[in-house]
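I hope you will forgive my troubling you with a question about protein structure. The matter concerns a single protein, recorded as an amino acid sequence and a row of backbone structure tokens. Please examine both parts with care and let me know of anything in them that strikes you as inconsistent. Thank you for your consideration; the sequence and its tokens are set out here:
***
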Amino acid sequence: METAIGKVFFRQEGADKMVEIGDKTLVLNTTSTRAGYGVRHWYQCPHCHSRCAHLFIGKQDLACRKCWDLHYASQSEDVSGRLLRSVRKQRLDIWKGQLAKADCLYNSPVRFPKPKRMSMKTFQRKLARLLKTEAAYWKSSEPKLARGFGRVMRRAEAAIRSAGWEEKNHTQ
């Protein structure tokens, strides 16, 4: 497998699974647990020996998410970012990409039609939840928008003053 740091090779020698990263060879241990549907196989982190579904490749090593101190993107988002993702997910859940207007948050979902094959009761429940989430999103993002628009307005006013348009309009 080709990666940004070079090639990574996986091979099996007898019962052992081996990983070659650059010039380093690691033994890849696995473990299994009983699940309702049979057996679930797991990797075992070479560092902390914890059970994990995914191992991540570094420059010369292989480790779990905790050992690399990795996090999900959603863990770095603020409240409005998480609400925005929730709004988009809910809109997609209701209209499933069938309505282009649903992608733009400036369009109110109150005016969107009920999707075919969705009961009115389900539609009203999902729409009520969406409207509540959207209200929370707009409330949380309002200070950011105000700062952004304030910056734009100050620049526009400065441009007007520097061009001398303000004096010309007042003298007429």
Remarks:
- The chain has a mean pLDDT of 84.
- The first strand starts at residue 2 and ends at 3.
